[in-house]
Amino acid sequence: MSNAVKKTGVKKVVLAYSGGLDTSAIIPWLKETYDDCEIIAFCADVGQGEEELVGLTEKALASGASECHIVDLKEEFVKDYIYPTIATGAIYEGTYLLGTSMARPIIAKAQVEVARKVGADAVCHGCTGKGNDQVRFEGCFAALAPDLKVIAPWREWEMRSREDLLAYLAERDIKTSASATKIYSRDANAWHISHEGGELEDPWNEPSKGVWTLTVAPEDAPNEPEYVSLAVKHGRVTHVNEEALSPYAALMKLNDIA
To answer: Which of 21, 91, 201, 203 is a Cys-bridge partner for 178, taking CB atoms 3.0 to 4.6 Å apart?
Structure first.
């Protein structure tokens, strides 16, 4: 791949970066695919957890990015995205609860803001070429920054599997926490976590207990009730057990209780 004729026309690209397998591979791929292109890594903190952010800047730079911008969006995400979604009872096609998808617009918006700040001429995402996430990101890009080129590696590169990505990174001596034995791919934010991979690929299979992260299996949960008082104003939780809290802090408090 590195021996191919490089593309031109992109001098600086902002990548929506998580530090996971896909985006770790995208950084060197961009450098090998586009001539003299600077890669700026951008990570949106939407409440996925501190453990997801530790060492992220170092990892991005080691993979070939020149900068890494981590933008704290937690309060805005809860106040302006999660609460309105709850208030409207938004459920996709009447059955699919919105979790991962509701975070995409705020991530794309912040990515465009970073692109404007650094003077980028392109944005890049790691969404697969067969899902709705690519549409969510690119719809936002089209609305907010139609002049920016959109790069979607999964629609361009030759890699097709997790194993291909692991081999690609190994060939370039780029370290990643992903491995062939870590079978689950997860996407987390302040409201939600999704899991895929392993036995979950067959809907007939029951998830193993290794899947549980935010919660536990019902049979392992405490069997004693707990009373919680909430104060709500304009559809937003303002107090939990009479303690005044910000939107994000209130949600985290309720998660801790749950």
So the answer is: 21
By the 10 Å C-beta count (0-12 exposed, 13-18 middle, 19+ buried), 181 is classed as: exposed
- State how far the alpha carbon of 3 is from the alpha carbons of 29, 33, 35, 170, 242, in Å: 12, 9, 12, 18, 64
Separation of alpha carbons 73 and 220, rounded Å: 33
> Residue 34 and residue 212: Cα distance in Å, rounded?
40
Crossing angle for the helix pair 56-63 and 21-33, to the nearest 10 degrees: 30
pLDDT digits (tens, 9 = 90+) for 21-48: 899 999 999 999 999 999 999 999 999 9
The whole-model pTM stands at 0.91
The letter for the amino acid at 232 is V
CA 257/CA 237 separation, integer angstroms: 15
Domain ranges of the chain: 12-171, 195-220, 222-258
Site of tokens 């600077």: 38
3-state SS class at 73: coil
Strand order in the sheet with 230-233: 230-233, 236-240, 243-244
CB 110 within 8 A of CB 42: yes
Contacts of 196 (CB under 8 A, 6+ apart): 184, 185, 186
**Which fold would CATH assign to domain 12-171?**
Rossmann fold (3.40.50)
pLDDT tens digits along 174-195: 887 665 556 667 789 999 998 8
